[in-house]
Write a structure and sequence with these properties.
mainly alpha; 341 residues; elongated; single chain; 13 helices; MetI-like fold; 66% helix
Amino acid sequence: MMAARMDPGPAGLWTLALRRLRADRAAMAALAVVALFLGLLALSSTGLIAAGWEEEVAVTYAPPSFLGADASMGEGAGAARNGPPPPNAFDPLAGDIAAIIAAQGAAIGAPPPPRLATLPFGADKWGHDVLLKTIKGGETSIVVGLAAAFLAVALGTLSGALSGYFGGVVDDLFNWFYSVFTSIPSILMILAVAAVLQHKGVSTIVLILGLTGWTGPYRLIRAEYMKHKGREYVLAADAIGASHWRRMFSHIFPNVSHVALVQLSILAVGFIKAEVILSFLGFGVPVGVVSWGSMLNEAQNELILGKWWQLTAAASAMALLVTAFSLFTDALRDALDPKLK
């Protein structure tokens, strides 16, 4: 007679959430897109791809390959492939830059490297490959979004846990800070902190966004801790002598961690867009560092000349990632909702 199988018991929150996510085809497709961008981020950060995005491999404003070579270059198109970029009537410095490049080539006694007339996604003013530039810019924007989201959620979770668990004076103090930060419009708060921290850099943007974005996680985590601190399992932990720190983060936090995870994904989407806005306005990455925001900043001048491919590449990549991340975040929030069966 076969032994009776042991009853595994009811499925936990994370098991049920995983089942719901797997059953949601849109969520799985969105997750695949997000994983693709994260894979490109890993390859770009290690230098396996997009390491030579600053190389001037094409002529100035080389069009995408499906458009063919720029017919306005006429017979000089072939010569431009083997020489410096042609001067631009709308850019007074382009001629000087071309002369400097030619002088450097003559000084070292070697001809300038050949330049391509077209690229798969076109080239910018300097002849940089827009595809590689978009991948490298995505690395900066995604790193800023994820790092700032981790910082904001960590600050919001810690302050919300302290405020909701202890209450009293501690709760009043954190609520005062919360009221001050939320009374100012978020974009004005971000610009104000950016003006104070005048040093430009990726770490500065992470600090700006993290220090201004903790209020949402704080409000939700505080409410969860206020609800859970009086439940039986916390009172039992108190009865056996568990410390406040152990009760807060070993007993309560695992039961509210899904709230922090959803907030992390929501803030990551918002901070990617915020980095683009800051870089577009000149408060973001410094000169020499590329991001989707800096690409859009450059592209606004290129549109006057009818060169639309850098704008299209940066905007399309950002729109695809943000849309996929938002769809996955919505699915994750629904999957982790204990009220949904």
